[in-house]
From TrEMBL:
Organism of provenance: Streptomyces pristinaespiralis
Keyword Magnesium on entry: no
Pfam family, one: Glyoxalase
Protein name per UniProt: 3-demethylubiquinone-9 3-methyltransferase
GO biological process, one term: methylation
Keywords per UniProt: Methyltransferase, Transferase, Ubiquinone
Membrane keyword on record: no
Gene Ontology MF annotations: methyltransferase activity
Length: 138
């Protein structure tokens, strides 16, 4: 297997909901492991939290996420975005519609000065997304 670069997102107790939402948006196979699944000492309040989640899609996307481990502080940041790009406008617009629903649109998905259709939004979980539809150079 070749090396991969995957976004890994830490959540404040809602990783299951967020990862299921992303599965609904992107499709694919979602595997979730709870703290109880791995065994060891886990408080009852943490047993059902997600220790590791991985979404792998038919399109080759991989997104990982988990609830912040017990005893660690959740520190959300604004220093990353997840980017979806390609030439399939219908598919990418579909992702955009679902990701931006109940979220905040920072840059509307529309033609930009460099020729591509591009938009930026923050989904309902506070995660920043960029969608770029490459325009054909005919």
């Amino acid at each position: 297997m070749s090396s991969r670069l995957n976004p890994y997102i830490s959540f404040a107790g809602n990783a299951r909901e967020a990862m299921e939402f992303y599965k609904n948006v992107l499709g694919g196979n979602l595997r979730l492991n709870t703290y109880a699944d791995i065994g060891g000492e886990t408080s009852p309040s943490d047993a059902d939290k997600i220790m590791h989640g991985m979404l792998e899609t038919d399109r080759g996307f991989t997104l990982m996420g988990a609830d912040t481990p017990p005893g660690m502080e959740h520190k959300p940041g604004n220093n990353f975005s997840i980017s979806l790009s390609g030439e399939d406008a219908g598919e990418l617009r579909g992702y955009w519609e679902k990701l931006s629903a109940d979220g905040t649109v920072n840059v509307p998905l529309e033609k930009q000065m460099w020729g591509d259709t591009f938009g930026m939004c923050v989904d309902r979980f506070g995660i920043s997304w960029m969608v770029n539809i490459n325009e054909s150079q005919g």
